[in-house]
Backbone:
């Protein structure tokens, strides 16, 4: 079955191609009667627009690229939902890629998106990304780039984050206000900016409350996952016994790993050790005990990221100078039974 063209529709209705095109797009300078004739015929012929031809005329691909570290992460899945909803409302296709926390794969994915001619790129960087040449390449190609969550501060582009220092500070301050003094911290990998900032927030809260920082209470969790949390909790108890009265963790998944270990060893939560996570995953509300956490408002982060990207793509189309934005999403403490 051959595809019906715009010209064939115009010939059948004895109209110009531009009039048919305007009728399909709902232009006000086309009469309602003409619009009705065009729509009825296109429906009967099952006509679909040639989006490739439209893209050539508008010099856009109607496609954006999104690169995230992990698909299964509850936080990122909420961001993706917000991005997809807005892209669909604007008739844009999304090419979604997962770097698996692999910097080399991330660079390859950037190259693939550039070859596909995407109109813009949204990215949350992998934990292993130390070099930002591939980000500069996007900028050099004059493709709008918005970084979210895990960012590179020195890359000249728009960014959407939370205030990781303040969010972690507020969490530790809450624990201190509850009377906890020996607070361990399960930190993420040494490189990502959000991992660095959350650690700095932990340290500053201790210092502001005249609690000496003890590096032996900080445990590296490079993958920030369940296994890391379980292993760190085991090391914590082996090193310090139950002299520790609270744990703050870089992610909920790490905190849940710790809770699993404490439960296994009959260490009471929060009576013996309080636990406070970060991200407010769905699992945090259904484990035993339920986990207190920092709400990052992932949906809002996704909405702001895609809004800025479309603003920048529109500015580029109009030949206007792109003004980079920095948006900081508010966070809140969600208190449950683990504290």
Residues:
């Amino acid at each position: 079955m051959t595809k019906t063209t715009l010209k064939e529709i115009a010939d059948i209705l004895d109209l110009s191609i531009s009039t048919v095109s305007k009728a399909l797009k709902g232009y006000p300078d086309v009469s309602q009667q003409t619009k009705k004739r065009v729509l009825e015929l296109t429906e009967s012929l099952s006509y679909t627009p040639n989006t490739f031809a439209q893209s050539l005329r508008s010099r856009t691909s109607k496609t954006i690229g999104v690169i995230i570290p992990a698909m299964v992460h509850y936080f990122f899945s909420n961001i993706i939902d917000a991005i997809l909803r807005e892209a669909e409302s604007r008739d844009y296709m999304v090419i979604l890629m997962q770097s698996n926390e692999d910097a080399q794969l991330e660079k390859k994915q950037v190259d693939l998106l550039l070859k596909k001619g995407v109109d813009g790129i949204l990215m949350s960087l992998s934990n292993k990304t130390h070099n930002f040449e591939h980000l500069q390449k996007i900028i050099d190609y004059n493709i709008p780039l918005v970084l979210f969550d895990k960012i590179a501060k020195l890359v000249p582009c728009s960014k959407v984050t939370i205030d990781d220092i303040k969010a972690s500070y507020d969490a530790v301050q809450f624990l201190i206000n509850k009377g906890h003094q020996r607070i361990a911290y399960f930190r993420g990998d040494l490189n990502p900016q959000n991992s660095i900032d959350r650690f700095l927030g932990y340290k500053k809260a201790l210092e502001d409350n005249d609690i000496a920082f003890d590096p032996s209470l900080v445990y590296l969790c490079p993958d920030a996952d369940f296994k890391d949390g379980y292993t760190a909790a085991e090391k914590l108890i082996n090193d310090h016994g139950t002299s520790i009265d609270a744990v703050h963790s870089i992610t909920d998944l790490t905190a849940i790993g710790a809770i699993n270990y404490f439960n296994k060893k009959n260490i009471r939560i929060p009576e013996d050790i309080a636990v406070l996570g970060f991200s407010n995953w769905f699992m945090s509300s259904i484990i035993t005990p339920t986990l207190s956490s920092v709400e990052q408002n992932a949906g809002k982060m996704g909405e702001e990221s895609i809004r800025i990207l479309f603003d920048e793509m529109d500015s580029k189309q109009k030949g206007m100078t792109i003004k980079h934005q920095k948006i900081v999403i508010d966070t809140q403490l969600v208190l449950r039974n683990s504290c």
User: Anything to note?
Assistant: The first strand starts at residue 63 and ends at 68. DSSP finds twelve helices and twelve strands in the chain. The chain has three domains: 6-49, 61-161+299-330, 164-295.
